[in-house]
Amino acid sequence: MSSTDFLYQDNFTEYFENYEEDEPPQSYLSYAQIASLVLQMVAFLLGVPGNAIVIWIMGFRWNKTVTSIWFLNLAIADLIFVLFLPLYIAYVIMGFHWPFGKWLCKANSFIALLNMYASVFFLTAISLDRYVHLIQPAFSYKHRTLKNALILILLIWILATVLGSPALYFRDTLTLPKNVTICYYNFHPHDLDLIVLRHHALTWVRFICGYLFPLLTMIVCYSLLISQVKKSAKLTSSRLFWTILAVVLGFFICWTPYHLFSILELSAHHSASFHDLLQDAIPLSVGFAFINSCLNPILYVLLSKKLSSCFSVTFSELVKHTLWEVSQSTTVSDHVQNSMSLQLIEAPGEQPLEERSR
Fold this sequence. Notes:
By secondary structure, the protein is mainly α.
């Protein structure tokens, strides 16, 4: 493998040191890769029980509401991802040797991208849902139903699957000398121009669809909310408002370095000046991105009112308390809708207002 081939490895595979034909790709881990590995282990150890608790509470203990199913699907996306993390952790520990076969190589990268797209799309949908619920209460009263929310959730999963599917096509394995197998993006065996083109295309699609557009949408939503909701005290005192804000900020704090260094990585096709920086920055940014998958249950605990009043309660009780407050949260538009209900006669067969406003 030539010294330029490592430039076309996906960020989730990490980078190899330059090596000769008779040498394995990497016989040791750098400090940055070790730090990334620690973050991945933390994501797995905390993410599996944390997200499982959220799914159990939201999916099996309580009645479904529009708000609760958003958070339920966020937890499902994160749990699916962290369950695949041991494969990648083992890959790094074994010196970037992939013994699990081609299809698990494809599936592992696909699941990572599916999690990223699904998470950011659900956060965007939650932000739009809050905006419509608060600013357009009449529209929300008619259309914000559990059925419509489930349809939107299905569309989000389909879109995330489509955007993540290139990993299923391009991801491949390659056996090197000394029986070392790597899992990498095989954009083309020989055509360097096509390799660069496909790498650029997938990176920019990932950045625009999985980061920039959702970020701008959420900035616009919350800016309009702050400027248009006159009773801002009601808005900012809502447990739901602060929970959504914390989850959104957590996502973008964790994923911003990954996307920025992915864009910077594209310049490595034309110049090796960023090689040393990317050698350390990419593993760390991947580790921070992965840690987001265990972050939401921790945020639910930190936001719980019970945390400051009683330290003897269990983790699951703290999560349950915050999620209960979120699912039952009273917002400005709830008061607006209650006043509207005094003037409107509900059509036969329509869902009660109290259930539709959740």
